[in-house]
Design a protein that fits this description.
Length: 268
């Protein structure tokens, strides 16, 4: 998006009713908790605006990255927070605790087919996995099946070193990830395939993407999409935030959580 367009959106931030954020790479470093500076700003934002978070990670990752860091936050502020993990195939809202409102699970047969298709694509292109893997390579998240280059737990095991490894892989090999995603979509036309995060590819039921998530926010929170703003680090063709550009939402692309902090300060 041209910087002039971003400037025009920033000028009307005070008129927006819901602020929608991607999680991984936007609010928090990949598979890591919010930084203290972000936690403070996010809590301040909840005092004045409704906030929705949509990410490819499962609910347990939302807990680790976001909710655990917000434990000191007054619980009444959680009435302004809405969580849409696994690309909005699940929705949680606060009511004396976090309650699951819906979840669109894949069947066992669907999950098995997706896993076998990943293996088929790897064989077809001659892809070899890294020698050291951390956790599951292909994880069934219930409503989403996700492949991660180094395994799902690299950051949990290696911490900042794991983040650096993911960032380096992203810089060097994103075209490879896009190639895998493109072939997966070719062989699975009945599903939705997205390149997500730094090193991940997500597969959900067809029609499930972050535009779907925005429609769920509209439905469950009662705010029109035109009255929202989306902030994400993957608003580009093939990125897992790109689908939101097909709606009439205003959006602001960011490179990392530090840029997101700047946007939140503008909102405040």
């Amino acid at each position: 998006m041209p910087r002039s367009n971003i400037a025009s959106i920033i000028k009307k931030l005070d008129t927006k009713k819901v602020f929608v954020f991607d999680l991984d790479g936007t609010l928090a470093p990949t598979k890591s908790p919010l930084e203290p500076s972000m936690t403070k700003l996010f809590e301040q934002l909840l005092t004045v605006k409704k906030v929705a978070v949509i990410g490819g990670g499962k609910y347990e990752l939302f807990q680790m990255q976001l909710l655990d860091e917000l434990k000191p936050t007054p619980k009444k502020l959680f009435n302004n927070l809405f969580l849409f993990p696994t690309t909005a195939t699940a929705f949680y809202r606060y009511n004396q605790g976090w309650k699951l409102m819906y979840k669109l699970n894949l069947s066992a047969a669907e999950a098995k087919k997706i896993k076998h298709t990943f293996e088929k694509v790897f064989t077809e292109i001659g892809y070899r996995h890294p020698k050291k893997i951390y956790g599951e390579l292909i994880e069934n998240r219930g409503s989403q099946v996700s492949f991660s280059i180094y395994g799902q737990d690299i950051v949990a095991v290696l911490g900042k070193r794991g983040i650096r490894m993911k960032e380096e892989w992203k810089k060097k090999h994103t075209p490879l990830k896009m190639k895998i995603a493109k072939l997966m979509q070719k062989y699975l036309p009945e599903f939705a395939v997205r390149a997500a995060g730094h090193t991940t590819i997500d597969v959900t039921k067809k029609g499930i993407n972050k535009a779907y998530g925005l429609r769920q926010i509209e439905k469950h929170i009662g705010v029109k999409i035109k009255d929202m703003v989306f902030i994400g680090d993957a608003i580009f063709p093939g990125g897992n935030d790109y689908a939101i550009t097909k709606t009439n939402i205003d959006y602001i692309p960011v490179k990392d959580p530090k840029e997101t902090e700047e946007i939140i300060r503008e909102i405040l």
